[in-house]
Amino acid sequence: MSPDTQCPYQDGRADLGPAFKADAPARYARLRELGPIHPAEFHLGLRGWIVVGHDLARQALTHPALLKDPAPADEMLNAAGYVLNKPSVGLGAQMLEADPPEHSRLRRLAAAAFTARRTAALAPRVERIAHDLIDAMPPAGETDLVEAFGAPLPATVIAELLGIPEEHHADFRHWSGHALRVASPEHRPALAGLHALLADLIAEKRRDPRDDLLSALVAVRDEQDGRLSEEELVGTGMMLIVAGHESTVHLLGNATLALLRHPRQLATLRERPELMPGAVEEFLRYDTSVERSTNRYAAEDLELGGVHIPRGGIVVVALGSAGHDAPQAEETDQDVLDVTRPNARHLAFGHGIHHCLGAPLARLETTIALRVLLSRLQELELAVPEDSLEWIGSGVIRGVTSLPVRYRLVRPARAHM
Asked: What tens digit of pLDDT does each residue of 199-224 get?
C-alpha cells in the first residue's frame, strides 16, 4: 500500500476526497482492518460517519432512526452551503431522498417501468444497441470505451424507456454525467439543465402523449391528481435518468477494466459466456459503480457499531467496501476477482426499502453488453498506462472518466437482429 493508504485519516477522520476515490478499494480495505465504522469528511467539509463493514452496513441501511429527512441536520447543512430540495442543487422531490409513506407512494408509481416482464422484453433492443455501437467503431485501432460504448448504451435504453427524443440525447448524456459529481463546477448547471429538459418534455407529453414512461407518469399526475405533485413528477424523471443511467455506465467500465487487469478471467468468460450472469454479480461485488450510499440522518441519538451518533449526524454506507466483507458461499479471498464465484454476495444495489428499483435492468444491460463486447472485440487491451486513468473525484459514483483501449473488431457470423 502507498503511504496514504497506510494512513487513511486526516485530522482523525477518513478524508473521502479525490485521492481517496482514486484508490478506494485499497483504502477501504485498510479501514475495514481498523473497524466497521469510522468518522469521515464529505463534500463541502461536512462531517459524519462511514460504514465499511458488511453486517453493520445492512443494519445501517435498515435502521429505523437513520432517515433521508435532513431536518435534524438543517443547521449543519445550511452552514455548509446546502439548499435542500431545490432542483438546481439536487434531484428534486423523488423517492431516493424520501422516507415512508412518501417513499412508498413514489416507488409504487415508478415500479411499473421495471417489472421483470418489461425488463426482459428489452433484451433484444439492448443487444441491437450493443452491436450497433460496436459496428460504428473502426475495424482495428483505439477507442475510448466509455465514450463509444459504456455511456451511450444505457443512455439510449433509458432515453427510449422515458421517451426522450433523439435530438436531446447528447444534452441529457452530458448533464447526467455531471449530475452526481458534487465537487464538479458543472454539477449544479447539469442538474438545472436536466430539470429544464424534463419540465419541457413533460409539457410536450401533455400536448402529445406517447407510449413511454414519462407520458404514463404525466397521466398519473393529471388524471389522478394528488398521487404525484408537479415537482415529484420532474424529480422522478431526473432520478430515473441519473440513477438508471450513470451507475450502469460505470459498472460496464469497471467490469471491463477489471477484466483487462485479469486476463485469465477475461479468457474464461470468452470461453464460457454462459458464466456472464454470475460474473456480473462478481463485478458488482468486486468494484461496484455506486461506491457509497447517499446520506442518511440520525432522527435521534443512537448507537451504531458501538459508536455514538448524535441527532442530526450523517451516516453513509460504503456499498463497495461491504462487498469485500460479505460472507460468501465458499471461503475464498474476497479481494480477488473470480468470475466463477458462485452466488457472489454484495450490497451494490443497497438493502431494505431503498434497494435499487432498476437492479434487474442494470443486470440485463451489463450481461448483454459484456457478452457482445467480448465476442466482438478481440485482442482487447488498455491503450494507456493504467496509472494514467482518471477516476471520478467526487460523489457516490466510482468509475474512470475514459477507458482508452486497443482492439481488433470481429464481424458477427450472421447479421444481428
From this structure: 888 889 889 888 888 888 888 766 66
pTM of the model as a whole: 0.89
CB within 8 Å of 67: residues ≥ 6 apart = 99, 296, 297, 299
Tell me the CATH number at 272: 1.10.630.10
For residue 17, what are the domain limits? 3-409
Phi, psi (degrees; rounded to nearest 5) at 258:
-60, -40
Greatest CA separation found in the chain? Answer: 63
Q: What is the pLDDT of residues 21-39, one digit of tens each?
A: 888 999 999 999 999 999 9
Percent helix, strand and coil across the chain, each to the nearest 5: 55, 10, 35
Write down how long the chain is.
Answer: 417
Rounded-to-integer distance, Cα 61 and Cα 293, Å: 9
Within-domain flag for 182: yes
Q: How far apart are CA 37 and CA 31, in angstroms?
A: 8
| R_g of the chain, CA atoms, integer Å | 21
C-alpha cell, 391: 477516476
CA atoms of 309 and 66, how far apart (whole Å):
10
Q: Please say whether the beta carbons of 30 and 6 come within 8 A.
A: yes
Which residue, among 77, 113, 114, 81, has the nearest Cα to 97 in the 3D structure?
A: 77
Q: Which parts of 51-186 fold into alpha helices (H)?
A: 54-61, 74-79, 102-111, 116-121, 123-135, 145, 152-162, 169-179
Q: Tell me how far apart the alpha carbons of residues 277 and 267 are, in angstroms, rounded to a whole number.
A: 16
pLDDT in tens, 133-185: 999 999 888 999 999 999 999 989 988 888 988 888 888 777 777 766 665 67
Amino acid 91: pLDDT: 53
In total, how many domains does the chain have?
Answer: 1
146 belongs to a structural domain: yes
Measured between alpha carbons, how far apart are the two ends of the chain, in Å?
Answer: 48
11 three-state secondary structure: coil
Q: Let me know if residue 77 belongs to a domain.
A: yes
H or E segment and range at residue 41: strand 37-41
User: How far apart (Å, rounded) are the C-alpha atoms in residues 340 and 257?
Assistant: 17
